[in-house]
Structure formats: structure tokens, C-alpha cells
Amino acid sequence: MYWNTRGVSTAHIVAATVLAVTAGAATAQQCPSATPRFADEFNGSAVDTSKWEFQNGDGCSYGICGWGNSELQSYQTANATVSNGILTITAKKQRVGAKAYTSARLRTLNKPASGQWTHGRFEARMKTPKGSGMWPAFWMLPANTTIAWPASGEIDIQESTGQKNMFALGTIHYGSSNANRQQLSSSIYKQPDSWADAFHTYSVVWTPYKISWYVDDLLYATKTPSDMANGADWTFENYKYYLILNLAVGGNLGGQVNDAALPQTLQVDYVRVYDGAQPSLSGAHIVEPNSAATYTVVDEAGTGSSYAWSSPTGQTSSGKSLTVNWGTAGGNVSVVVTNSCGSFTKSLPVTVSPVLRQSVMLDDFEANRKLSYVSVTGTLNQTATNPAPDSLNGSASVARYVRSAATQYDLISASTNQIPDAGPYIRGEQAVYLDVYSTAPVGTPMLLQMENGSTATASNFPTGRHSRYSTRTVAQNGWQRLKFLLDDRLDGATADTAVNRLVLLINPNSYTGDTYYLDNYAIYAR
After folding, report:
1. Can the peptide bond before residue 420 be classed as cis, meaning omega within 30 degrees of 0?
2. What's the CA gap between 90 and 378, in Å, rounded?
3. pLDDT of the residue at 13
4. What are the residues whose beta carbons fall under 8 Å from the beta carbon of 328, sequence distance 6 or more?
5. Residues 6 or more apart whose Cβ sits within 8 Å of residue 443
6. How many angstroms separate the CA atoms of 90 and 76, rounded?
7. Can you count the helices (H) and strands (E) in the chain?
8. CB contact at 8 A, 252 and 34
9. Is the whole-model pTM more than 0.85?
10. What CA–CA distance (Å, rounded) separates 225 from 20?
């Protein structure tokens, strides 16, 4: 929940990795209890104060004005209600003191009926809010307050924002001191709807040297000490942590508030803590049409496992994994796992992206051009000879681009009036494609940003950047047609109808000078 800086780093810490593997092997045969160590099903008529403590005000009484994140609300007990088995935290346009908004924040610290835990599975079934400026969070802090944040760590089980409600985030914060604070964050997105459209179960499984994040029993991220530049910063071995539920307004991550969308709510069906992992699934929850994807049972305890898979395409398996050959329709991939720990049924709803066809040629570097290039970092030749015509790209004329090796974020910026509504790109109903031939290694990243050229400047990121899309090369010295997939919804204040510029970033965050041939820069639609 603390988002003062952004820091992602990697290294390989052999000792910590060995400990993680050893710890996993030691617990592999232990059956987790089906009974939660802690649970609140919210079946009463008010918040159970034997389990939850309210944190009220603007944070100043706790020594962190703005709650450490420049948040705009004053937390109030009255903003958390319980009815019909649901905890509802409501964010309102309501002045209390110097704050123009109210909401609620609850924690399990100092409560004998709940308390603090070291390791386990922590989950909540929630429906998150929409509306720009909303920042719901289900997270954990250490109960040992003698060691200052972030050296004592922080685990964010679920975060999102109203303007990016198609993304769910999972993060750990750490560092030897506040001046050296770092974070590792991962996200999972949903199309064509968003996570805020329904209830979903968000969870982490926390062991001494590994933390994994899930949505609806789908594993989407794992962090270990080897993901850190300094493995000694891993602080999650043995501290006791407590749970926090809150809905912030604005702040460092929440962003600009849309008052017209208020009130907004975070609804919680239940919160549960278990002593260990449960069987879950790994695999793609969004796939391209007519593609294959493999699904695997993970976090499995017990012995003598048998598996019974089913899929909407008719493929089955009795092994730990199933490969599904998708067509153009999605559906549920399910498995029944039976072993010495019992029988577990897991199901993953999979969305097949729509079949898209070329609708607008932005630039074929011949006769069709609906772009105006306004800024180019490297060297762009718009009438180069195709280096190797083939069945995918037989054009005589293509663009030749030499990336600037002196520039960390090399870009090709062009204005266009061909994106009157960026909403379909967020939902996966439209996409930008580009033909690429390059000397760069396979896996070289490329980003595409949709921007408003009137508000985005070189020094005010993310202002004016509507959204970002990513792809990676799949061939070297051969033509490939790449689809840019949603990577982030950047500035919620930039409306879907405000995009008038496309910025292509080739191998960003590097100093490379590879040559790229580009062609058939195009919009595809249903």
C-alpha cells in the first residue's frame, strides 16, 4: 500500500534459493488444514470488533499524514457496514476537517479473535470499485513495530485503481531503510470485462522464501530472494504480519479523483487465513484464437495424486498438466485432484480473444499512410528495400530503422486521427499490429503507447498517456507479424476519445543499436 517509489531489480542468491527449495520439499507431503486459522464471513449486522480494529482519521495521529501516500480521505468508522453477508467500505465525497473525502480502513492488529500470522494462505473474496481515484487494498504489515518500514517488509495481496480496474496488482515492499526502499510488483489483466465487474478471490501463499499471488486459484506471480538485487533484503522469513482492508481515495497510486463517480464501494464477502497452500492452477486465462495453452496443477500436497481434466475443446488428461487446443470460443478448464489429502476441484475460466482483421492501414510505407511522424530518436528511412521478401511480407518497399544506441528510451512518435475511441483496445476488441524484420535477438521487447499529444510531454509521465501495449520479437532475421497486447492503463485522466498520437518504443530501457525493418503498421478490429 506504500507506493513512494518504484524499484524492480533481479539477482541470483544461491543460498536463499536452496533454502526455498528445501523448505518446499519439507512441506510437500503435509496436508493443509481445510479449517481456516482465521475467518470472517461477515454474517452479522456490523463489523466484528473482536476481529477488526478501525484506523480512523487522516493518518497524522499515527505519524503518517496522508497515510504515507498523499491520500485524500479521512477514514471513518461509519463508512464500513455489514449487511447480507457482505462488508461494504464506502468512499464518499464528504468533508471531515481538511479532507474532502471519507472512507474506511480496518486491521486485525491488537485483536485477540484474529491477530497476526507467520506464513500461510491469506485470501479475500472481493468486488473492487470503479471510478478514477479509487484505490482498494487488501494487504499485510508486520506486527513488530520496533523495526521501521520497509526493512520489516510489506505484502500487498491485492491492489487496483478505479481507472485501471482491468488490472489487479500484487506487490512486496522491502529495503534496508526508507532511503533504500524497493518493491517488486506483478499484475494480471482481464478482458473484455474487468476485475471490478464481479466478485473474485484474491490470495497469497507465503512461505519463508517464496510468496505467490493468485486470482480465483490461478497462480499469476511468484517472488523469491533471487528476484532482488540484494537477497539480504528479503525480510519475510519469520515476522508476524496482520491484515488490512481499506479503500483509499487519490494518493500516489490512486491518482486523480472523479467526483462524479462517487460514492464507490469495496465489497468483501469473506476473509480467511489457512495454514498452507491449496491446489491451484497455472496457465493462460486469455489466449489467442486457434492457439494452444498448457495448464498445470501447482501447490499440491499429499501423495498418490490422480487427475481428471476436462476442457470445452474435448481434450482430457490424467496427468498433472493438460494442453488445450483452443479454437475461437473460450470456457472452463477443470481438474479434479484426488490424493491422500482429499479431493479438490479447480476450474479456470479462459477467454479466447476475438478474431481480428485488418481495418485501417496506418502506414505500409508505400501508398497508404495515415500517420504523421513528429519525433524520431534513431534513423528512419521510410522507403527502404525489403531485405528478405517472403510469404508473410512480400512488399517491395518497407521502412528501415536503426535504433539509437546512445538513447535508453528510443522512440518513433506519430500523430494520427485513426483512434477515435481507445476503449476497444483496452477490451481487446481492437489491436495494433506491425510487421518486423530485425537483427535483434528473439524476445526483444517493443512497446506502443497511445497518447494525447497536447498534454503528454517528455517530463510529465504518465500525464497524457492513455495506455501502453507490449509485444516481443519471435524471430531473428525473418519477418514476423506482431500483435501489441495491453500492458497498462496509464493515465486515467486521459479519456478514451483523447488519443491522437502513437509512440513506438523499440527495445526500451536499453542501449542497443540494432536494425529493424518495419511494415504494415495497422489497426485490426473484429
Report:
1. no
2. 50
3. 29
4. 289, 290, 352, 354, 355
5. 472, 473, 474
6. 10
7. 3, 36
8. no
9. yes
10. 9
| Whether the predicted pLDDT of 163 surpasses 90 | yes
d(CA 456, CA 494): 10
Report the C-alpha gap between 3 and 150 in whole angstroms.
Answer: 11
- Looking at every residue in the chain, the average pLDDT score rounds to 93
pLDDT at 17: 35
- Distance separating alpha carbons of residues 319 and 305, to the nearest angstrom: 9
Residue at grid coordinates 480502513: 105
pLDDT digits (tens, 9 = 90+) for 110-132: 887 778 999 999 999 999 999 99
Backbone φ/ψ region at 286: left (φ over 0), alpha (ψ -120 to 50), beta: beta
Q: Percent helix, strand, coil in the chain (nearest 5)?
A: 10, 45, 45
The secondary structure of residue 85, as a DSSP letter, is T
Q: How far apart are CA 44 and CA 50, in angstroms?
A: 12
Residue 63 to residue 485: CA distance in whole angstroms: 42
Are the C-beta atoms of 404 and 492 separated by less than 8 Å?
no
C-alpha cell at 100: 474532502
Contact 377, 313 (CB under 8 A): no
Distance, CA of 238 to CA of 361 (rounded, Å): 57
| C-alpha grid cell, residue 446 | 517493443
Contacts of residue 436, defined as CB under 8 A and 6 or more positions apart, other chains included, come to 446, 473, 479, 480, 482, 516, 517, 518
Contact 513, 404 (CB under 8 A): yes
327's CB contacts (< 8 A; 6+ apart) are 289, 290, 313, 352
* Three-state SS letters, 416-439: CCCCCCCHHHHCCCEEEEEEEEEC
So what's the pLDDT on residue 115? 80
Task: Indicate the SS3 state at residue 472.
Answer: strand
d(CA 407, CA 321): 44
pLDDT digits (tens, 9 = 90+) for 20-46: 333 333 344 588 888 999 999 999 999
Which amino acid does the sequence have at 232? A
Question: Are the C-beta atoms of residues 255 and 163 closer than 8 Å to each other?
Answer: yes
User: What are the residues whose beta carbons fall under 8 Å from the beta carbon of 459, sequence distance 6 or more?
Assistant: none
Instruction: Point out the catalytic residue in the list 71, 123, 159, 451.
Output: 159
Is 429 an annotated catalytic residue?
no
Catalytic residue among 71, 123, 154, 300: 154
pLDDT in tens, 220-258: 999 999 999 988 899 999 899 999 999 999 999 999 999
